[in-house]
Structure formats: C-alpha cells, structure tokens
Write a structure and sequence with these properties.
This protein has about 450 residues and is α+β, with helices and mostly antiparallel strands. Helix content is about 25%, strand content about 30%. The longest helix is centred in the N-terminal third of the chain and has 16 residues, at about 65-80. The relative contact order is 0.10.
C-alpha cells in the first residue's frame, strides 16, 4: 500500500494453484511467479523502500501469542537436557562471583569461540540446533548461538530467553501476526534491567549489541510470561554511536612530519574497529592502517607505533593510538605557506553529487546509515619559519536532524593551531537538496587549506 501516485508497478500473474506444504503445525502456500529481469540498484540513491514497494499482508494466524507459544514449545524442547552445556558453564564461570562477571564470560565464549554460519531463517529453517550439538559442531547460526548462550546463562542462574527480531525493512510494517523474523538474539534480566545480547554480532559487547540494524525494529520475546508480546527493540540515540579522534601533526621544514592519532570509538564504532584487528599481527596492522589512511587521506603515511585495547575485552568503548611519519601537502607562495590537512571528513566527497542525480531529486534522503556523533580535533605544530596563521572563521550549521561546527585556536607560545570539528547526524529523513548543501559545507571545512604568513 502506498499513497504515491508516480510509481509504476510490474504485475505478475500467479500460478493457477499454489504449492502447499505443512510443517510444525503451519500451512505454507507458495505461488510461482514469472521470471523478471534483475535490476542493479544503488541503495544510497534510492527513496525509502516503503515509498516504492507496495505490500499486501495475509495471515491465518490468530494473534502474536499463537506464534510465541508455538516457538516457545520448540525452544523449550531444544534447551532441555544438555549436560555438555551445563558442564561447560561450570568451567567458564569458575571463580566468577557476580552475574555481570558470569554474563560477560559466557557471552565472550559464545561470541568468540563459536564461529557464525549463515543458515536460512524461515518456517523451514526455524528449528535451532540443541546447545550440545552446537558445541560439538563448533559453529552455529544466530538461532543456534542464541540457544547455546541462553542454555549457558540459565545454567549459571541467569534469567534469559530467546528473542525473535526483524532486521530488514521498515520496522512499522508488521500489522498482522506473521513469521517474518530473520534474526534471533537474547533478552536477559540483570541488575533489574533487561539487556539485549547478540552472540552472533562481534561489533560490540553484551550491553551494546543493539546495532543500527535492529535499533527500533520489531521483536517477539520467547519468554515464559504471556505479557511478553510483540514490541520493539529500544532505539539507541545517535549520540551513543560516536567516535572521538585527536590528530597531532608536528610540521617539519624538511617535508616529512611526525604525527600521532588517538581515537576512542563507542558502541558500534568500537566493535567495528575491534573486529577488524582480530587475528592480525601488529606489523600487519601497522602496514594495513598506513596503506588505508594514505589512500583515504591523500598523503603518504608510515606507522611505527600502534597500541590498542585487547580485542577480547567485552566493552562498548575501544581505545587505539598510532603514530609515525606523514608528508603534508605544503605549498609556498613568497612568504606564505598553505597547508592542506588530510581528508578525514566522515562525509565522502562524492556524496553531494550523488544526492543530486535528477531521477531521485523528489525523494527524501534517509540518514539512518550515517547516524552518529563524530568529534575530531587537529593539533598542528609548526616551526617559527612558518610565521603566523590566518585563523579561519568559525562555522556553525544546525538542523533538526544534523549539525556541524568548527572552530580554531592559535597558541603563539607553543606554536600550535588547534582545529575542532563536531558532526552529528540523527536517524530520519530530510530534504535531499538541503542535505546535499550541508554535506558540501562540511567537506569544504575539511578541505580549506590553512594559511601561514611570515610577518
């Protein structure tokens, strides 16, 4: 259903009779449609899916409680009698006295020691493997790893239950009882609060596994209480997904400058960074980071220092520090020097042009994938031969869904110029042309050369 009038639909006549299969007490009817040609789509240039795709919902399921009871009967059978799981729980939690310590130890084992394997999640693939079988296999998909973790948590005396989640599409599009879930996580009561844990997601610890993919999405708890009906995963504010970066550059008259970069990543950003470091040697990481940033920052870089938090740490905050040599783009015009700082904006240079393609100008831009708060500080130290800087004017742009500010400070005694950038983007939709203009302003602020003048 849609209220748009400018959309064209391709009508496909269904087969005369559906194919009928029955499994787990449910009847499945499938109609074979005609083959249609594939279309390559660019997700960044598309309008919101609910403005393009019409939907028809049909159900023969009485209510959500019917689905919950059905899946709970499956879950209870799978979780019953798993002696290997109970023995493993005692080994992992030995010496752990608090629920928090037990939860973190058990989560770490399932998340890190049991590799994730993708298996289809629908009526035909909705039965998880028993936890003991998952331990024997040493792999599992989301429903396998969830039930293994729930079994371990319960063996440790923790109140935990499986949670069915819809990760794809618009979270509001579940008007009727249906089995459209495509992911499974854990609900766990600890310290009087319910936390959601995803043992299949290595991008964060147990207290921040609600990633942007499932934040605000519909879920169905498969717990013991009837009041555990269809709900929505709590939405995590954009400011809880953020990165703080401090880049220090000591400029040399010889051309090659010393730099250090200290970065603190929170929640989703923390996990993405940690997951990328897993299994690599320090030498390999130094080489790959230097190569990656040499390319993205448009300057030659060589790392000789790298430290970071343990990749096994179950936490939502991740610290890293790296440094080495870099070559800045410095131009001399008489007694004036222009320094072009690295391209380290979180907005790609090509984004404004991509947003302004004629075919999509009438659609709003969806900011969900870009939400977060990004704080960046550049401390530039220059020799006396560079003279004094011409300090750029402060920039401040603010809208209901996004904001950006930049300011600068010159310390004459230390000969350091400090530039601060603050970018914030929230979940939502906004006018495409307006956001393209905002993106241009952000990119321009990062690309504006710094001018030093000898007096």
């Amino acid at each position: 259903y849609t209220d748009r009038t400018d959309l064209k639909y391709l009508a496909m006549a269904p087969a005369k009779e559906p194919v009928v299969t029955t499994k787990f007490g449910f009847k499945k009817l499938t109609w074979a449609g005609q083959k249609t040609p594939g279309v390559r789509l660019d997700a960044d240039l598309l309008p919101p899916s609910d403005e393009v795709l019409g939907s028809i919902y049909i159900t023969t399921i009485k209510d959500w409680e019917t689905i919950r009871k059905w899946y709970r009967s499956i879950s209870d059978a799978v979780l019953a009698d798993n002696p290997r799981t109970e023995k493993l729980c005692k080994e992992i939690t030995a010496g752990k006295n608090t629920d928090k310590e037990k939860l973190e130890a058990l989560y770490s084992y399932v998340a890190l020691q049991i590799p994730y394997q993708t298996i289809g999640f629908d009526y035909d693939g909705s039965i998880p493997r028993r936890p003991d079988e998952c331990l024997l296999n040493q792999w599992g998909d989301c429903k396998d790893k969830t039930h293994l973790a729930v079994g371990l948590f319960r063996a440790a005396g923790l109140n935990a239950w499986p949670v069915l989640v819809l990760t794809s599409g618009d979270g509001s599009r579940m008007p009727l009882p249906q089995f459209s879930f495509d992911h499974e996580i854990i609900g766990c009561l600890t310290g009087g609060d319910t936390v959601f844990i995803d043992p299949s997601d290595l991008t964060a610890g147990p207290y921040r596994t609600v990633t942007a993919a499932i934040s605000g999405q519909p879920f169905l708890p498969i717990g013991p209480n009837p009041e555990m009906a269809l709900g929505a995963i709590p939405k995590i504010p954009a400011d809880q997904y953020h990165t703080d970066t401090r880049l220090g550059i000591t400029v040399s008259d010889t051309g090659s400058s010393r730099f250090t970069c200290a970065r603190t990543c929170y929640n989703v950003s923390a996990g993405n960074r940690r997951d990328g470091l897993r299994g690599k040697s320090t030498a390999d990481l130094m080489s790959s980071i230097g190569t990656d940033f040499s390319s993205s920052w448009g300057t030659s870089m060589t790392l000789d220092t790298l430290t970071y938090d343990s990749v096994e740490t179950v936490d939502s905050v991740f610290h890293e520090f790296w440094g080495g040599q870099m070559r800045l783009n410095v131009s001399e015009i008489g007694t004036t020097r222009l320094i072009t700082i690295p391209d380290w904006s979180n907005i790609p240079t090509s984004l404004p042009a991509d947003l302004m393609i004629d075919q999509v100008l009438s659609y709003p831009v969806v900011l969900d994938a870009r939400c977060g708060t990004y704080n960046k500080t550049l401390v530039l130290t220059v020799p006396e031969s560079f003279g004094e800087p011409q300090v750029a004017k402060a920039v401040s742009i603010s809208d209901s869904l996004y904001s950006f500010s930049s300011n600068s400070n010159w310390d004459k005694d230390k000969r350091t110029l400090t530039l601060e950038f603050r970018l914030g983007i929230s979940v939502g939709r906004c006018d495409r042309k307006t956001f393209a203009g905002f993106a241009n302003s952000v990119i321009k602020s990062f690309k504006t050369p710094i001018l030093f003048q000898q007096l």
